[in-house]
């Protein structure tokens, strides 16, 4: 599993949504017996701040609302407490999951950015569609980066993260050279 390493922290004020200013990247590789283990190791190698529990924020676009219920259930099973923005909270509530409601930045305080600054979140899943939603979520992405909160912009990333939470990324770390030596022996 390869993971891109982007030095967003070296570009103050840059939106961590991928754009043309991020043409030069580095990569790390995570190798494991399962996807979850490989993903967890790749995240560890990229200095991700994945935590196994805490409070997660879910704010997803309309097209992701069907699948967010399954993701929320997985996070609850893992031991996370959940927050959600209004639209996402309605969908979760209809499925019997009752997150704490949180305001978007333009909806008044206390809002998402306040809660990030206060250290309330260990994980954020924020999917967007449309120019305005992408621009509105810029402050969330910047704050998550600044306060070292693990952040996914797709539900697939969210599902991968939940799988990786149960994998032991430090169980066995093998260098590429060691892997090649093992292959030659086989």
Automatic annotation (TrEMBL):
Gene Ontology biological-process entries: glutamine metabolic process
EC number(s) per entry: 6.3.5.5
One Pfam family recorded for the sequence: MGS
All residue ranges annotated as the MGS-like domain in the record: 48-186
Zinc recorded as keyword: no
GO MF term set: ATP binding; carbamoyl-phosphate synthase (glutamine-hydrolyzing) activity
Annotated GO CC locations: cytoplasm
Protein name: carbamoyl-phosphate synthase (glutamine-hydrolyzing)
Annotated source species: Salmonella enterica I
């Amino acid at each position: 599993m390869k993971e891109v390493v982007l030095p967003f922290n070296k570009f103050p004020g840059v939106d961590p949504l991928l754009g043309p200013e991020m043409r030069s990247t580095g990569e790390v590789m995570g190798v494991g017996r399962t996807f979850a283990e490989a993903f967890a190791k790749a995240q560890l190698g990229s200095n991700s701040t994945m935590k196994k529990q805490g409070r997660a924020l879910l704010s997803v676009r309309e097209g992701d609302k069907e699948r967010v219920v399954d993701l929320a259930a997985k996070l609850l099973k893992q031991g996370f407490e959940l927050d959600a923005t209004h639209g996402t909270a309605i969908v979760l509530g209809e499925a019997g999951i009752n997150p704490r409601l949180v305001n978007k930045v333009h909806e008044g305080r206390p809002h998402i950015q306040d809660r990030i600054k206060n250290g309330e979140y260990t994980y954020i899943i924020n999917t967007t569609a449309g120019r305005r939603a992408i621009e509105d979520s810029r402050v969330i992405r910047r704050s998550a980066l600044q306060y070292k909160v693990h952040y996914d912009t797709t539900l697939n990333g969210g599902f991968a993260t939940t799988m990786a939470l149960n994998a032991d990324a430090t169980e066995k770390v093998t260098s590429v050279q060691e892997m090649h030596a093992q292959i030659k022996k086989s």
